């Protein structure tokens, strides 16, 4: 089973992923978690480039680098683990490319981005995608003391477009499960686990 988490920076993805991993492990499941971009040596090196505030990266290059990091992760780690019956949880997946590069940067037409996403993953589709829906104001309040990476320096207009991108996906992708992320950590966790429980 492939489960992905999406949402703007600071929406609580890492927090919820670690609660979910703990719960599923307790129940006896094998669980592996990867963050995007990252998860393999090659993908972590690409992540270093993508998040480095000293680098200027063109919008199309950025999109292709995120996709390259993903392609390596899927081929090297995710596909083999899914074959072994492991539950794989991804902290972001190609929906982030639609929201950040498609809506945020407006790098390419969405149709082209969907094709690149399919090519990079050889048509892998998550079983569940949890969209942690949080306002931009609350997310920036939660992360105001964090150091900003290259993406996070893109500014408010960019993030407003990214937010709209996730909202668009939530409306158009049936696999998206929208979770109200404004609440306390345990209530959010319970909602997520309730959706999964009967499918395990
Ligand atoms: P993301 O992985 O989406 O960037 P994190 O899980 O790292 O988000 O959370 C960002 C910050 O918000 C962290 O300091 C985290 O402890 C805090 N946080 C996470 N979930 C909640 C919540 N439900 N309520 C309040 N603060 C939260
Ligand atoms: P990260 O620190 O992992 O995210 P978060 O702040 O949510 O914990 O940083 C990854 C950054 O890369 C984040 O700003 C979102 C962005 N990103 C894209 O722009 N496109 C993508 O396809 C992916 C996977 C991430």
Blueprint of the fold:
Layout: E1 2-6, H1 13-26, E2 31-35, H2 41-51, H3 59-83, E3 87-91, H4 94-104, H5 110-121, E4 128-133, H6 136-142, H7 156-172, E5 176-180, H8 185-197
Parallel strand pairs: 1-3, 1-4, 2-3, 4-5
The structure holds adenosine-5'-diphosphate and thymidine-5'-diphosphate.
Features:
binds adenosine-5'-diphosphate; globular; Rossmann fold; single chain; alpha/beta; binds thymidine-5'-diphosphate; 8 helices; 200 residues; 5 strands; 5-stranded parallel β-sheet
Largest sheet entry: 5 strands, parallel
The ordered H/E elements are: EHEHHEHHEHHEH
Instruction: Round the Cα radius of gyration to an integer and report it.
Output: 16 Å
Which geometry do the CA atoms define? Answer: globular
Name the helicity range.
55-70%
Structural category is: alpha/beta
CATH hierarchy, class: Alpha Beta
Q: Which spans have pLDDT < 50 for at least 5 consecutive residues? A: none
Tally of separate domains: 1
Average the pLDDT over all residues and give the rounded result: 98
Tell me how many strands there are: 5
Structure description:
Helices cover 55% and strands 13% of the residues. With 200 residues, the chain is of the alpha/beta class. It has one domain: P-loop containing nucleotide triphosphate hydrolases (Rossmann fold), CATH 3.40.50. It has a five-stranded parallel beta sheet with strand order 2-3-1-4-5, with helices on both faces. Helix 4 crosses helix 7 (156-172). The radius of gyration is 16 Å and the shape is globular. The mean pLDDT is 98. The chain binds adenosine-5'-diphosphate and thymidine-5'-diphosphate (TYD). Adenosine-5'-diphosphate binds at residues 7, 9-15, 142-143, 184-185, 188.
């Amino acid at each position: 089973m492939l489960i992905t988490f999406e949402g703007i920076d600071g929406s609580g993805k890492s927090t919820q992923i670690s609660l979910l991993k703990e719960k599923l492990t307790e129940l006896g499941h094998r669980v592996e978690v990867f963050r995007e971009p990252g998860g393999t040596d090659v993908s972590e090196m690409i992540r270093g480039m993508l998040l480095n505030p000293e680098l200027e990266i063109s919008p199309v290059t950025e999109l292709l680098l995120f996709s390259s990091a993903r392609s390596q992760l899927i081929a090297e780690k995710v596909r083999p683990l899914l074959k072994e019956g492991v539950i794989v949880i991804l902290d972001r997946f190609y929906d982030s490319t639609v929201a950040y590069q498609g809506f945020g940067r407006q790098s390419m037409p969405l149709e082209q981005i969907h094709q690149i996403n399919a090519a990079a993953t050889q048509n892998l589709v998550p079983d569940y995608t949890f969209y942690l829906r949080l306002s931009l104001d609350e997310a920036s309040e939660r992360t105001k003391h964090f150091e900003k990476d290259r993406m996070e320096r893109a500014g408010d207009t960019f993030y407003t477009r990214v937010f709209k991108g996730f909202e668009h996906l939530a409306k158009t992708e049936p696999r998206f499960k929208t979770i109200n992320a404004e609440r306390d950590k345990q209530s959010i966790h319970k909602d997520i686990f309730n959706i999964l429980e009967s499918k395990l």
